[in-house]
Design goal:
five-stranded parallel β-sheet; alpha/beta; Hypothetical Protein, Haloacid Dehalogenase-like Hydrolase, Chain: A, domain 2; Rossmann fold; 14 strands; globular; 2 domains
Length: about 270
């Protein structure tokens, strides 16, 4: 039986310094060389995921932006892409504007990933996020930008207080795939909005089929991994995971600080 082993990154495969350890790289790389099918599914872009997972040698497709894209980790080409229609994106932006929420808007513009934002209107936490990516070629400040050109695939809204984001979540969640949660690295609250059919789970099933795997085993820590757990044949939560994810898991392994995914794979992967 051919098995796909699929891990979340932040809080699961990565340690709290947002990096993969040399120990995890050593174990997983050795297992991949022996034939293990391993990949990851993350909310990160390919650029930031590759930096965080530097040293990990996997030539299997990667799931980024919570399932918006599946990319070939060798050619870096997008295998699968899902974006909003223009009217959908316009309606989302109008709703956010009414609530005085200024989003970071991710697009494909001439085949390149960009994120647009209005520096005058962003919240302080969102500005902090943007500043951490000041040298990122995707970063595009555009005052009074409205809806940017290109194929829009992701809205990210960051606020210190949850109230307005919760209101937006309640208004949008039935028509779109919305994730509302507190950031694991800070006290800030995030609302992420994607097309209805976009999720780690949907992308993972596509990768499973693409690789001809019969079974999928998933690892995660956050509520955004819940759909992935439901789609997997087996699923394991790290010890530091959200309690709701632990309740859905087949088992609880050690924490992300202890290379627990890699050690589980070393003991159990076939």
């Amino acid at each position: 039986m051919k098995t796909l082993y699929l891990s979340d990154l932040d809080g699961t495969l990565l340690r709290n310094d947002q990096k993969i350890s040399a120990e995890s790289c050593r174990i997983i790389n050795s297992l991949v060389k022996k034939g293990m099918h391993f990949s990851y599914a993350t909310a990160r872009s390919l650029n930031t995921a590759s930096k965080a997972a530097a040293g990990l040698d996997t030539n299997f497709p990667l799931i980024i932006y919570n399932g918006s894209f599946v990319v070939d980790n060798v050619s870096r080409q997008r295998i699968l892409s899902r974006v909003f229609s223009r009217p959908q994106a316009e309606n989302i932006l109008a709703m956010l504007d009414k609530l005085e929420i200024s989003p970071i808007i991710y697009t494909l513009l001439n085949g390149e990933e960009k994120f647009f934002f209005d520096p005058k209107r962003l919240s302080a936490p969102a500005l902090d996020f943007v500043r951490t990516r000041k040298d990122d070629p995707r970063s595009t400040p555009l005052p009074d930008c409205g809806l940017p050109q290109g194929d829009i695939f992701y809205f990210t809204c960051i606020q210190a207080a949850p109230d307005r984001l919760k209101t937006a979540y309640d208004l949008l969640k039935n028509d779109f795939n919305c994730l509302f949660q507190q950031d694991i690295y800070s006290t800030d609250h995030w609302l992420e909005i994607q097309p209805k059919n976009v999720s780690k789970a949907d992308a993972a099933l596509s990768v499973k089929e693409l690789l001809g795997c019969d079974k999928m085993i998933a690892f995660g820590d956050s509520i955004n991994d819940l759909a992935l757990f439901e789609a997997a044949d087996e699923c394991y939560a790290v010890a530091n995971a959200d309690e709701r994810l632990k309740a859905a898991a087949n088992g609880i392994i050690g924490s992300n600080e202890n290379d627990s995914v890699a050690h589980w794979l070393l003991k159990n992967a076939v």
